[in-house]
Fold this protein.
Amino acid sequence: MTKLKAGDKAPQFKGIDQDGQTLSLDDFKGHKLVLYFYPKDSTPGCTSQACNLRDNYDMLLEKGYKVVGVSADSEKSHKRFIEKNNLPFPLIADTEKEILEAYGVWGLKKFMGREFMGIIRTTFVISEDGTILEVIDKVKTKDHTAQIIG
């Protein structure tokens, strides 16, 4: 699997959000898209990251960004996560890991001496025409918006 980088065309995707709506890359043409991949709903780091994006959401919108999160959690789990944290953006349930694999963020992880397959926290900033502008692979969950607009 080749690692995506700035300048590459963003892979097409189609997924179902927390409300059962289908979202695809084409839905965001004409807007910059912050497509962020995170390991699991309602875990400390993922909650910090989502809340940082929530707290800066109006500023991101003003700068022309749309925000979409993706994890392997179910639609139901996403709905609870959104309601609990008052998130204003959609979350795609990629339970089949098709989007995760297309973007190269499903891979081997190490934690406390154990190796396992999981989601590698990564954010892709995608241009209005579908080109990757930036790949953020060292995500600061509590200050993620600054990394995006920095």
